[in-house]
Design a protein that fits this description.
CATH architecture: 3 Solenoid
CATH class: Mainly Beta
Shape: globular
Number of helices: 2
Strand order of the largest sheet: 4-7-10-13-16-19-21-22
Largest sheet: 8 strands, mixed
Number of strands: 22
Number of domains: 1
CATH topology: UDP N-Acetylglucosamine Acyltransferase, domain 1
Order of helices and strands: EEHEEEEEEEEEEEEEEEEEEEEH
Helix content: under 10%
C-alpha cells in the first residue's frame, strides 16, 4: 500500500486500485477538496470545489455534491442523493434511498439492483442537517432549512424553516412568515 500525506495529515492513496484505492477512478472531484481517512467514493460521483469530507464517509454511486459542502464523520450518502452548494451535514447522518428495504424478493431470492426502486433526494442550497439525523428517500429539503440533531426526516421541508424530531416537523416560522407578521 502506498500512502502519502500532505502537511495537514490528509491521506492520498496510490497503487493497486483493487487493494487500496478508496476513490473510484470515474469520480470527479473539484479543486481544494479535503478528504479524510476511511472514505469510500464510488463510481460516477461528482463533487464540487472546496468540499470537506470527514473520516468514515460513504458516498454511493452517482451522488452529486455541490461546492462549499462540509460532510461530517461517518455520514452515509446513498445513490439518488443530490446535495447543492453551501450545505452542512453533521456527523453520522444517513441518507436512505429505498422506502421498503428488504434483503430478498418474495420468492426468497437475494434482491439485485433491479429489484427495488431508488428514490431521489434533493438537499438544496444552504441547508444544515444536525448530527445523527436520518433522511428518508424521495424528499426535498429546500433552501436554508435547518434539520435538528437526531431527526428522522420523512417528508419534504420548506425553505428557511427549522424542523426536528421523529418524525421531523416544522417548529419555527419561516423567514417569510416572520416578515409578513411585521407588516
Amino acid at each position: 500500500m502506498n500512502i502519502s500525506f500532505d502537511n495537514k495529515g490528509i491521506a492520498y492513496f496510490q497503487g493497486d486500485f483493487r487493494r487500496n484505492q478508496i476513490i473510484d477512478e470515474s469520480a470527479k472531484i473539484g479543486k481544494n477538496c479535503k478528504i479524510w481517512f476511511w472514505v469510500q467514493i464510488r463510481e460516477n460521483v461528482i463533487i464540487g470545489d472546496n468540499v470537506i469530507i470527514g473520516k468514515g464517509v460513504y458516498i454511493d454511486e452517482g451522488v452529486k455534491i455541490g461546492n462549499n459542502v462540509k460532510i461530517g464523520n461517518n455520514v452515509s450518502i446513498f445513490k439518488g442523493v443530490t446535495i447543492e452548494d453551501n450545505v452542512f451535514i453533521g456527523p453520522h447522518v444517513c441518507f436512505t434511498n429505498d422506502k421498503y428495504p428488504k434483503a430478498v424478493n418474495d420468492d426468497g431470492e437475494l434482491k439485485g439492483s433491479d429489484d427495488w426502486e431508488c428514490l431521489n433526494t434533493l438537499v438544496k442550497e444552504g441547508v444544515s442537517i444536525g448530527a445523527n439525523s436520518t433522511i428518508l428517500p424521495g424528499i426535498v429539503i429546500e433552501e436554508y432549512a435547518v434539520i435538528g440533531a437526531g431527526s428522522v426526516v420523512t417528508s419534504s421541508v420548506i425553505r428557511y424553516s427549522t424542523a426536528y424530531g421523529n418524525p421531523a416537523r416544522r417548529k419555527w416560522p419561516t423567514y417569510y412568515e416572520k416578515i409578513n407578521e411585521k407588516s
